[in-house]
Structures are given as structure tokens and as C-alpha cells.
Amino acid sequence: MFLTNVVIASAHHAGPLFKLGPLEVTSEITTMWGVMILILLVSFLGTRNMKRIPSGLQNILEMGIEMYENFWTDILGKKRTRELMPILATFFILILCSNYTGLLPLSGTLPGLKPPTSNVSTTAGLAICVFFLVLYYNLKVQGPIGYIKHLIGPMPAISFLMLPLNIVEQFTRPLSLALRLYGSVYGEEMVVMSLAALCPLVLPLTMQVMGILFGAIQAFVFTLLASIYLEEATAVHH
């Protein structure tokens, strides 16, 4: 009975909350707005009074940035990390906060509160951003002719085989990014609802505690794969 009520409530709030002209505003959109406002607020409070010797929120943010930068330097090198870090950090923080909104009380059943990454449109949008970033850096580094040669491969004699495969690969990468993130977050929601029907107190709480780890892992995996694709696109520099 509990599961039925939850599913009905979720289905009821699956439609748009309201419209802004032709734009339908759903719970995922309003939650994303909230996440973006939170990130902007924390960033503003942590940087509004910068000090040479940091303390408080500025110190926490700088420690996080330093740890993040040291990790990606091992993959991208120092120069490319400085160039790509704002992009990769944005992906990681936005996905992480979006995933964690699913841990809030009544998330998914309360109007206007639903994890943005539980909607394939959100994850597809993020993956499309990665696709165009990779395309941009490939064209910037190699030029159009060089990029076509890259797609053909080192053996032009079998280009009729490699070119279609490499083109398909450029599209399957963002597709896998979108579906992996969406499937993980949406699947977790379904598991929590199923467990809530069996044991409303213990099992869902256990899954939500594990969701703290899973949410971070999914944000990390998405960002890691994006960094690998961007590393390949910019490798000609080195």
C-alpha cells in the first residue's frame, strides 16, 4: 500500500508544475534551480572577503580545490588541469549536489523537489555539453583536416571501416554518460521505494546511507570519463 501511494504521488508530480510561456517547469527544473542558487551562494560567501591566510569557508573551499587540482594533474598535467578544471569542477559539483537532493526528506514526492539527475533530459544535457566540448577541443587542437585524419585512423587503407566506427564512437560516448548517470540515480530511487514497501524504517534508511557513497561515485565517474575524453582531444599539445 505504501509503495502504491508513493508511485502514485511520484506519477502525479511527474508532469509540469507550471509553465513559463512555452517552457514547462517540472520538479527536476526547480530542484536544479535550487542547487544552482546554493552553489552560487556558497561560492559568494566563500570568496567575498578573500584573505591571504584563509580561514572559515574560504579555507574549506581552497582545500577542496587544491585536492581536486592535485588529482586531475596526474591525469591531465598541470597546464591542461588549469585550463579544464573550471569545466570539470562544475560537472562534479553540480552532479554531486543534484544526486544528494535525492536524500532529502520527501524528495520525489514533494512538489518541486526531485533529483535532477533522475531525469534523462538532465543527464543527456550534461552529456551533450561534454560532446561539444570534446568536438571543440578536437577542432581547436587538430583543425578540421587533422580531426578527419584522426577519425580515419593511422591506416588510410581501411578508412572505409574505421571512419564510420570512430564517428559512431563520438556519439556513443555521451550516450553512455547520460544513460549511466540516469540509470544509477533513477534505479536507486526505485530500489528505495521497493524497500520502503517491505520495511519502511530500516531498509530505506540503509539504502539512503549507501546513496551518499553512490552519489559521489557517479559524480566522480562522469567527471573522470569526461576528463579522459578531453585529455584525448587535447593530447596533441603534448
Name the features.
single chain; about 240 residues; mainly alpha; two-stranded antiparallel ribbon; 2 strands; about 75% helix; about 5% strand
Description:
It is a single chain. Helix 5 (120-152) packs antiparallel against helix 6. Mean pLDDT is 80; it is low at 1-13. With 238 residues, this protein is an all-alpha fold. Helix content is 76%, strand content 3%. The longest helix has 40 residues, at 159-198. The chain has one domain (2-11, 25-237). The termini are far apart. Strand 1 and strand 2 form a beta hairpin. It has seven helices and two strands. It has helices at 2-12, 27-47, 56-76, 78-100, 120-152, 159-198, 202-233, and strands at residues 18-20, 23-25. Strands 1-2 form a two-stranded antiparallel ribbon.
Short description, anyone?
The protein is an all-alpha fold and 238 residues long. It has helices at residues 2-12, 27-47, 56-76, 78-100, 120-152, 159-198, 202-233; strands spanning 18-20, 23-25. The protein has a two-stranded antiparallel ribbon.
Please outline the helices and strands.
Elements: H1 2-12, E1 18-20, E2 23-25, H2 27-47, H3 56-76, H4 78-100, H5 120-152, H6 159-198, H7 202-233
Antiparallel strand pairs: 1-2
Helix pairs in contact: 1-6, 2-3, 2-4, 3-4, 4-7, 5-6, 5-7, 6-7
Shape verdict: globular
Summarize model confidence as the mean pLDDT: 80
Distance between the termini: 60 Å
Annotation, overall tally of beta strands: 2
